[in-house]
Write a structure and sequence with these properties.
Length: about 150
């Protein structure tokens, strides 16, 4: 039988309430649907008081993020769940948001910017140029051309 999805509001409420028995109370199909990666994304981002937002980010990194990809821990989803319950300060249910992947520029425009950056930085690695081409704006590129005496 395929993995049964756990309702997001149910799992995040259990996380915020520090329900240490939540994973044990799931049926076998729901346990297969438990995704530590998705939990990391949702657990770390809450909306509200900036200090609480900061706390959740730091707490997620400290209690869960640094351990989730270790080979030994992936064999113990119950332990992963317990690490997630350590994130919450226990102040009640929070409003968790999804952290989306940053949007990148179109490939054609990005390649043009990357080629121009390669002229300015001929010894830069290709990966570094990719990252820089996603970060630099047209205004910054124009200023860089002006600084190098290129019109």
């Amino acid at each position: 039988m395929p993995a049964k999805k756990i309702p997001l509001n149910k799992i995040l409420t259990a996380l915020d309430n520090k329900d240490r028995d939540f994973y044990d109370n799931l049926d076998d199909d729901s346990k297969k649907g438990f995704s530590p990666f998705l939990m990391l994304r949702y657990a770390s981002c809450v909306t509200g008081d900036p200090e609480l937002e900061y706390y959740y980010i730091k707490s997620t990194n400290y209690h869960a993020n640094r351990y989730m990809l270790e080979q030994q821990l992936t064999k113990f989803p119950k332990l992963q769940w317990l690490l997630f319950t350590a994130i919450s300060p226990g102040f009640g249910v929070m409003n968790h948001k999804w952290i989306s992947k940053p949007k990148t520029k179109s490939t054609k425009a990005n390649n043009a910017i990357k080629n121009q950056l390669a002229e300015f930085y001929p010894f830069a690695k290709d990966d570094d140029l990719d990252i820089l081409s996603n970060m630099v704006t047209k205004r910054e590129l124009t200023a860089l051309k002006k600084d190098h005496g290129i019109n």
